Known about the structure:
Elements: H1 2-14, H2 23-63, E1 75-76, E2 79-80, H3 82-91, H4 101-104, E3 109-111, E4 121-124, E5 135-144, E6 147-154, E7 158-163, H5 167-172, E8 173-178
Antiparallel strand pairs: 1-2, 3-8, 4-5, 4-8, 5-6, 6-7
Helix pairs in contact: 2-3
Amino acid sequence: MFMCDLLSRKISQILLLPRPLSAVSFSRLTIFLLAMTLLGSCAASRKARTREDKVDDVIKAARAFTGTPYKWGGTTRSGIDCSGLTSNAFQTIKLPLPRTADAQALVGEKVKMKDVQPGDLLFFATGKKKNVITHVGIVTVVHGKDDVKFIHASTTLGVVETNLYSDYYKKRFRFARRVIQ
């Protein structure tokens, strides 16, 4: 009981209350603070589920284009390019992206390769200039540090899922960005 009285006085001083909290008030305050902590953690959990739902929707939308042939500037199932694929996929969650890969490379926050998650965008320099972004894809699955799958519109294969660590893409990878928070 002595400890509760001491704690009650300290809380009263911190909160600038005119008199110490009674045992009943102290108990109510404790229950209130515990309830607020639990509600706060529930809100964080709900936000995490919401992100997962958005990521699932984006990946599902992108996978709906699997097998679609590549067409420069294309945005439909009759033909699509890499940034058209990402734009279409993110539009399903009402998150508009710029139309080109180099413009998309400026959206969101940069992510270290070791922290890449499904839904993140991967950017590549596939042209002659090694620092000019010319290609983009969406991470679909992360199975480990050497097994990261992404969906993209390949100029030769159309819309496919590929391992980031395949020789061709590993050499041309520049950075990743997260646009779904």
